[in-house]
Amino acid sequence: MAGQSTTKDIVSEYLSQNQQLAQWVETLRNYSESNKHWFARREFILRNMEAYPEIEPGVPSSSLDRLMCLSWVWANHVFLGCKYSQAVMDQIKEMSERDVVHDTSVQTAKPESGASRKRGTAPDTNSDSCGKRANVSPNEADSRPSRRTAACPVNRKWGPPPQAPAEHQSFFNRLYKAVAWKLVSAGGFGPNLDHFEIIRSCVESCKQSLTCVFVPLKDIIGLPEGCMQKEGHVCEIRCQTVYMGTGYGQNESDARNMASKEALKVFQGQKVTVKICRRKYRGKDVEDLLLLDDQPRNQGFPPALSYPFQAEDGSS
Predict the structure, then answer these.
(1) SS (H, E, C) 49-84
(2) Which residues of the chain have pLDDT under 70?
(3) How many CB atoms lie within 10 A of CB 16?
């Protein structure tokens, strides 16, 4: 406990002397995170920022996306017991062992390793490679800071940067080939496949990981009037901040499988393309990164359950 308090004090003192950084780093917090999970992941982010010198607070970049992805992988492993490829596990282990910065006047913090602490992990072995969970208690939600504390002006338009589709396209081209070979070996796309396992293994073979967000159906904003179905969960799957699919199920596992099935459908065309499209998030129109096939679409996209970019009004 003493070690944890010391680390928390170091981080708090450092952020108190770097107010702009403190405000910006809070914008990286996901709305579903408890204080315990966020404080630990925040340490991981600050500790490793110096490894990505091109990251500028308030400026979206592929390097920031990469660090955020690794921070979620680390948090999933520590708190949920998720397992990843050996290369990824080695990387997050190395990142979690960086030294503490004791001089809090410097511009880059490297708080004490969170991986060295004793933390219980969830026994649910079905949580492999799944990410942010939006199941929180009212007390946790009330204790979170407002997302309007962004360091940059609130009237600035945020979202995926214009170059983001091109930056992500080469990865999803590789993933497309991996999924194609996997489906061929499995006998083709069908209802009896383990859709989540296929897409998870393909993503990890490309040295990345999936992020799964779960939200109870009753908490979804904008359901049609008179909708009687209120039970169950909705799952959204992303990879490298790119939206891939949404699914519903009576429990999280079923919802994740349905979302994986929808994501795999995108890979049935001749190619996949990363695009910036407009969709709803918390009742507002936002620009989001989506993975699309080469088929024409006549209907809108399901509303986003998570949003890894800064929204137009300064909240994310």
Answers:
(1) HHHCCCCECCECCHHHHHHHHHHHHHHHHHHHCCCC
(2) 1-9, 31-32, 98-158, 221-230, 297-299, 310-316
(3) 10
As a whole number of Å, the CA-based R_g of the chain is 19
The per-residue pLDDT for 121 is 35
Helix then strand then coil, in percent of the chain rounded to 5, is 40, 15, 45
**Cβ-based burial of 115 (10 A; exposed 0-12, middle 13-18, buried ≥19):** middle
Sorted by sequence, the CB contacts under 8 Å of residue 138 that are 6+ apart come out as: none
Burial (CB count within 10 angstroms: exposed 0-12, middle 13-18, buried 19+), residue 126: exposed
Pairing of strands 273-281, 242-249: unpaired
CA–CA separation, 203 vs 12, rounded Å? 36
Contacts of residue 296, defined as CB under 8 A and 6 or more positions apart, other chains included, come to none
Cα dist. 134→106, 131, 249 in Å? 35, 10, 15
CA distances from 61 to 15, 107, 164 (A): 22, 19, 8
Widest CA span in the chain: 59
Backbone angles phi, psi at 213, to 5 degrees: -110, 130
Q: Which pLDDT does position 199 carry in this prediction?
A: 93
Contact 44, 114 (CB under 8 A): yes
H helix intervals, the chain: 2-16, 19-26, 35-48, 62-75, 86-96, 138-142, 164-185, 195-205, 252-265
